[in-house]
Amino acid sequence: MLNSIARDSRLALLVGLSIGIVGLPNVGKSTLFNALSAAKAEAANYPFCTIEPNVGVVQVPDPRLAALDTVVHADRIMPATIDFVDIAGLVRGAHKGEGLGNQFLSHIREVDAVVQVARCFDDPNVVHVENRVDPVADIDTVTMELCLKDLETVNKRGDRAKKLLKTNNAIEKIAAEMCDALAKHLDDGRPARTFRVPDHADAPTVLREMHLLTAKPMFYIGNVDEGSLGKLAENKHYQALKARAEAEKALVVPICASLEAQIAELEPADRPEFLASAGLTEPGLFAVVRTGFDLLGLITYFTAGKVEVRAWTIKRGTKAPQAAAAIHTDFEKGFIKAEVVWWEDFIKLGGESKARDAGKMGIEGKEYVVRDGDVMHFKFNV
Q1: What local confidence, expressed as pLDDT, does residue 160 receive?
Q2: Model pLDDT, residue 12
Q3: Are 139 and 220 in contact (CB under 8 A)?
Q4: From CA 65, how far away is CA 35, in angstroms rounded?
């Protein structure tokens, strides 16, 4: 279904986004990361066992790929991927450099979104850096450290804007006013993503150029014990975390990181029986990956042929020529048209040719906005 250029060794994805896993030490971040990526970051029962950030390229679970393959019987199946970054635990005072805080905060700055892991289980054998199990307090600690680091950035930008006010620069005027309001917001421990940006054309640009840590999209993971799976209503720690997330209009995903690590160690053929014994229909990590993918505003379209069935990652709202660039930049440069069929029609009708004969394959131009689930065939000329 792809022209030969798509199999060129220069093939590259347009979108390569990453999610940083953060939290206090010993809440299960590295255990979660190991299960996600099988990269085997060291997981130990003491703080700061992860010093450098580990990066794992994680496949996005998508049953549509296997369904498409039943039609074309491709040589290989290539799912979409997303990068997860295991960032060492933050502690109180991190914004001042406590606990290697400066290094950790710089790693957070480099990711596109953040997932906060909070401990929602009691276990006297697993130490807590602050000697208590309180997921909301943990989140408050991490959030405040990020807010305080952002506060430094905002104050510096505000001071610069005030020095430039005498130039009668409209952008600096709105920057000075916005930074004053945002500084108060952050000082209260409220992240920048909840700040109401002033209704001024330049305000979003000023905010974006500060690259604030707490402006990044974020969701929560509640790391529960295995006994809580299936009866989360009885886990007071998870319920407290859920209430906090709902108040922020944030998403929260419950998983048992230790159980997920065991699942990841099993051979694929052995996993269904193990999952059934644990009362699960799929690994909890599938929900984590899908939530992260959705949080970043990503969707997938497909190409399906004898060589491969592949999911391509693009931002929601992407038009056809830019979507084609996910395969190769030449596809965008020489874009002529796209032949598009909905994935369900592709399967039901038995492939591209039959979908075309049935009138289910549309011819789309440069203004076509790609849908999640489109099967596409690009025509180009370079």
Answers
A1: 93
A2: 33
A3: yes
A4: 22
User: Which residues are CB-contacts of 267 (< 8 A; sequence separation ≥ 6)?
Assistant: none
Rounded alpha-carbon distances, angstroms, from residue 348 to 59, 194, 304, 360, 375: 26, 45, 14, 11, 13
Q: Is 259 exposed, middle or buried (0-12, 13-18, 19+ CB in 10 A)?
A: buried
Name the nearest CA neighbour of 379 among 341, 340, 337, 327: 337
Please tell me the pTM assigned to this model: 0.81
Gap between the Cα atoms of 347 and 69, Å rounded: 9
- Greatest alpha-carbon pair distance for the chain in Å reads 71
Q: Say if CB 29 and CB 39 are below 8 A apart.
A: no
Mean pLDDT for each consecutive 10-residue tract of the chain (382 residues)? 31 58 85 74 46 74 95 94 80 53 69 93 76 88 90 95 84 93 95 92 93 94 91 95 93 93 87 88 89 92 96 96 94 95 97 95 96 96 82
Containing 352, the helix (H) or strand (E) segment is helix 352-357
- Which position has the token pair 């009691």? 122
pLDDT score for 342: 98
**Closest by Cα among 335, 343, 293 to 316:** 293
What three-state secondary structure class fits 7? helix
Instruction: Of 19, 49, 22, 51, give the one whose Cα is nearest residue 37.
Output: 19
Q: CA nearest 312: which of 114, 72, 38, 64?
A: 64
